[in-house]
Amino acid sequence: MKYLYTLIIVALLTWPCGAESIDLFNGKDLRGWDGDPGIWRVEDGAIVGSVKEGAQVDNHTYLIWQGGQVEDFELSLKFRSDVGNSGVDYRARRVADSRNGKDLRWTIQGYQADIVRGWMGSFYNWGLAGAQPGQFVLVTTAPGDKDEQLTRVFPLADANAVLGAPYYKPDRWNDYTITARGEHVIHRINGFQTIELIDVSNSKRSEGYLGLQVHAGKKKQVHMFKDIRLKHFPYSFATPILLCKAPDANALEAMEPDSVRLTDHRALGFEVHSRTGSRI
After folding, report:
1. 204 CB contacts (<8 Å, ≥6 apart)?
2. Confidence bin at 256 (pLDDT 50/70/90)
3. String of b and e for 217-246 (b: at least 16 CB within 10 Å)?
4. What is the pTM of this model?
5. What is the architecture, at CATH level 2, of domain 21-272?
6. Are the C-beta atoms of residues 228 and 23 closer than 8 Å to each other?
7. Which residues contact 280 (CB under 8 A, 6 or more apart)?
8. Among 241, 209, 214, 234, which residue's Cα sits nearest to residue 225?
9. Is the separation of the CB atoms in 123 and 142 below 8 Å?
10. 3-state percent breakdown (helix, strand, coil) of the chain, nearest 5
11. Can you give the residue ranges of every domain in the chain?
């Protein structure tokens, strides 16, 4: 029988005492945010990002929170996406170079919690790692190449069962929760965990900007957001480190969840440390 060596995760996402949440949207205007005024507005107490049918959006455009960069946090919000492709980007960097000569002042690139039918709750990282609903993803650096990532995907649940589950409510307000602590990321929609990610690659993102997306294209889009709250985590309690020789990541194989067994709990341990001076 083949076994799966796995990571032991110990309370990476436990809320520290004293963590407080702040409101990022006042429900009245876009104070504290910056985006294309032709796309973003406030209507009936919600942020609305919309594009008319046939109107060309050359580059992904974002409403960017102006409160600084996020590191370790939990973000909660309500969203409704009637049509189009959107997402919540976090730990993102500003994009400096335009491929088509257009202004990119409202474009960022980082981790994304997807908002689009069929991929709802997915994890996306431009040109790098991804995770569809029902997946656990481990991202490492490929041996011998600092710039190339090795991504291993393991099932948290059967993909068809996840996509068939009513965790997302079309044409209604849905709760989105994004929790990021160190290398560990979890997405939840209406309390349903859609993905889990551990990114220990050289390209991992530990901090960056937060923004709401309207996808490039020329199709109609309508996306709404409200009740946006950020809980900042001032400490990272644990980071996985190698204590002794473990199998090469190439030897890992995806297995059904009920077949997974831990064969060597000593292979991986944790280095405890605190992070001070974190900023939101």
Report:
1. 139, 183
2. very low
3. eeeebbbbbbbbebbbbbbbbbbbeeeeee
4. 0.78
5. Sandwich (2.60)
6. yes
7. 22, 67, 68, 69, 70, 71, 73, 230, 232
8. 214
9. no
10. 5, 45, 50
11. 21-272
